[in-house]
Design a protein that fits this description.
The complex is a heterodimer. Chain A is mainly α. Chain A is built from 16 helices and four strands. The model of chain A has no long low-confidence stretch (mean pLDDT 82). In chain B, helix 2 packs parallel to helix 4. The chains are: A mainly alpha, B alpha/beta.
Chain lengths: 428, 306
């Protein structure tokens, strides 16, 4: 056991000391922060656009458009500037005379550039048209604000003409029934956020396991392959038993991925707690209630062990990265299947197809994690877990001699040797 | 004397292929055994059986008194052929880690590693990544990692390959030191001079079978001594000299000829030489050459590649 722990420790430290580990650790928080902060930073760095509003309708729509662009108590979406070369004879005249300003060939009287101009004019069908001119192809949603405010002004005018109070209509439109969701599976009968959290937690656990397995697969394959290529594996085999070597590697890589995930999850937990302590409390409750933590741990450990054993064994038969990738490819394809069906399990955890997939040991840990909200019966939990661990035990029984045979073999990956050791459990 | 290693009637088959057949030998504690044989002779398979990495199909191996080599793992040091180390680790960490797998505490392993590195002139590189070391230094680190736990049985597979002459000499000294402190050493090599200088016992294998097991002197005795004569004479005139069993000749300087006359076991060279002079042959130079281990190797293995 002490050797297993020492191999695990070396494995862990070997990865922790690589730049790749720190990149993995920081990439997600940095990526998320960038997604959140970058638009704000860009928005702050971008000067407020300057817009001219030219109304040819004679219906005095400009004040309402200005009010929409510069709402009370909110930052202005644009700075309204007086029409530069006013007055304009007609929309075509306005369009023509504004061109040098919009192209940046001529500055406004205050020396700044004109970024946009909204020419509001009557259209041929008796309605109103808005010609929105912008210096850039994208105007950041300003045209939508102008269009919406003009539309609202027109609608209100028409309503008033029809003798309808626009405010009264707005109140009528806002009338909706109070919808309440009920389910016998909800704690109080009424479905609340607390009841939907287990579904999301189950999906999150399934995705987490998928990430751990996919991340760990590459690490385990490379680790064994490196030791085999350099013949260190022979020294290890002369110093420790195969289960100690395999166990140490699996544990070490689990600790590496565990560290990364724990770091990410801590950041997530802090953010949730700061932003919504109630949700954070409910989330903790989800894991503690009905023994969900044990349920998740059961399938998480079983699933990781099942896949990690497979990858370590395959790694012992590979000498080059190309060989490893060739073998890893089909496994990755298989791994996409639970990824697809886990999302389905959120809405329909008891679909017959999903329940069937649960009984395929390779998919069991993912599907059962995703189906947690449907409260699978105890017999189903016990049976699928027993099957999963039986397959893992069988895999280990085969993997021990197969690992040794692969580690001591030389040359390219030998399919016949692999299956010979797997099927006959032949030692080297 | 207690046997550090005892191999009795060991056979290893892989399907229809027999890698080692009916191999038996014993090695006394504190002795140095040279494991010689052409490629494919079964040396690596035998080493793996001694280490317990593969199980014999038949026969038994006793290592340091135990029938199961796994039970004495901590008392064995093994250096594989084409060896490597964790390139990103420092020599202290790498040696310390391997020592920790051999029963030492991590702290003690690191302490001994540093001590060994200083003793062998690598103190300044103890904490640098192995990938920054020269090939010779890295090989030295690998060898030290085999010895850090002070094993009673040291198995070195081709330990001299890749070492420069100075480091080869240093390794020879190291092997003598290991044996001097009472440990048993087995090493395989293709360089006969190392075996000749170091070994108390040599084991020659060919095609999975033992062809010789004994001392270096006994091995050499299996190859004929050669009487070399050079001069202006007819080579065929030497064919019936007493004790001569085989003649080979080649042109020498001028119109002279150089003849190598292989002598039968125990035949005195003086008689053949005296007879040659008695026949009045114009012999200008002669030399009696004792066989080297290389000659014995060729004779015993049927000229297999070494």
């Amino acid at each position: 056991m002490i050797r297993l722990l020492r191999i695990a420790r070396r494995e862990y430290l070997a990865y922790v000391r690589t730049p790749g580990f720190w990149l993995s650790l920081l990439l997600l928080p940095v990526g998320l922060s960038t997604i959140i902060i970058a638009p704000m930073a860009v928005s702050r760095a971008t000067p407020t656009p300057r817009i001219a509003i030219i109304d040819f309708t004679g219906e005095h729509l400009t004040p309402q458009v200005v009010a929409a662009i510069n709402p009370h108590g909110a930052p202005p979406q644009a700075v309204i500037v007086p029409d530069p070369p006013r007055p304009f004879a007609n929309p075509d005249d306005a369009r023509a005379r504004l061109q040098p300003y919009l192209r940046g060939q001529r500055p406004l009287p205050d020396g700044a550039n004109l970024d946009a101009a909204a020419i509001i004019r009557p259209d041929n069908q008796g309605g109103v048209a808005v010609d929105f001119w912008s210096r850039n192809l994208q105007s950041g949603g300003l045209e939508q604000t102008v269009s919406a405010s003009v539309g609202e002004a027109i609608r209100n005018d028409r309503l008033r003409a029809l003798g309808v109070d626009p405010k009264a209509l707005s109140q009528v439109e806002s009338l909706t029934p109070n919808l309440s969701l009920y389910s016998p599976k909800a704690a109080t009968g009424k479905v609340g956020i607390k009841d939907t959290l287990p579904t999301l937690a189950g999906l999150a656990m399934g995705v987490l396991l998928l990430m751990v397995v996919l991340t760990g697969a590459g690490m385990l394959l490379n680790s064994v392959m490196e030791e085999k290529t350099s013949r260190i594996i022979e020294v290890l085999l002369s110093s420790a038993s195969v289960p100690e070597i395999m166990g140490g590697k699996i544990l070490g890589v689990a600790a590496v991925t565990g560290t990364i995930l724990a770091f990410w999850m801590t950041i997530g937990a802090v953010l949730i707690t700061v932003r919504s302590p109630q949700v954070a409390g409910d989330l903790v409750g989800v894991f503690l209630q009905h023994g969900h933590w044990a349920y998740f741990a059961l399938y998480f450990i079983g699933g990781y062990l099942m896949f990690a054993t497979l990858y370590v064994t395959i790694g012992a038969f590979c000498e080059t990265a190309r060989e490893a990738q060739t073998l890893l490819g089909p496994m990755m394809i298989v791994m996409t299947i639970p990824g697809v069906f886990m999302a389905q399990a959120v809405g329909h955890p008891d679909l017959p197809l999903l329940r069937t997939l649960t009984w395929i040991p390779l998919f069991t840990p993912f599907m059962m994690a995703a189906r947690v909200a449907s409260d699978p019966p105890l017999w189903e939990i016990a049976s699928t877990a027993a099957l999963m661990f039986a397959v893992t035990a069988f895999e280990l029984w085969i993997a021990v001699p197969a690992f040794k045979a692969g580690a001591l073999a030389t040359g390219r990956f030998d399919v016949r040797l692999f299956f010979a050791t797997v099927t006959r459990r032949r030692p080297a | 004397m207690d046997a550090a290693l005892s191999v009795e009637g060991v056979t290893k088959r892989y399907g229809a292929f027999t890698a080692v057949e009916d191999l038996s030998f014993t090695l006394g504690a504190g002795k140095i055994l040279g494991f010689l044989g052409p490629n494919g002779a079964g040396k690596t398979t035998t080493v793996r059986m001694i280490l317990g990495l593969v199980a014999p199909t038949a026969g038994a191996v006793r290592v340091l008194g135990e029938a199961d080599p796994a039970r004495v793992r901590n008392r064995i040091g093994f250096l594989p052929e084409e060896r490597g180390l964790y390139r990103r680790m420092s020599p202290v960490s790498a040696i310390g880690f391997l020592a920790s797998l051999k029963g030492l505490s991590t702290a003690e392993g690191r302490r001994r590693a540093r001590e060994l590195l200083i003793t062998h002139g690598l103190g300044d590189f103890a904490d640098k990544p192995i990938r920054s070391l020269s090939k010779g230094m890295a090989q030295k680190v690998q060898i030290l990692s085999t010895l850090v736990h002070r094993p009673e049985l040291v198995i070195l597979d081709e330990p001299f390959s890749g070492l420069d002459p100075a480091n080869q000499q240093a390794l020879e000294d190291l092997i003598r030191d290991i044996a001097a402190r009472g440990a048993t050493v087995i090493f395989s090599t293709h360089v006969m001079q190392h075996a000749e200088r170091l070994c108390d016992q040599v084991l020659l294998m060919a095609r999975g079978r033992k062809v010789f097991d004994g001392t270096v002197d006994a091995a050499r005795a299996s190859a004929p001594r050669t009487l070399m004569m050079e001069g202006r004479f007819d080579a065929s005139a030497l064919a019936d000299l007493p004790g001569v069993v085989q003649l080979t000749s080649e042109p020498a300087e001028g119109d002279a000829v150089r003849v190598s006359a292989a002598l039968s076991a125990g035949a005195p060279a003086q008689e053949a030489l005296r007879e040659a002079f008695a026949r009045g042959l114009d012999i200008r130079r002669f030399e009696l050459r004792e066989p080297h281990l290389h000659d014995a190797f060729l004779v015993l293995t049927g000229g297999g590649d070494s």
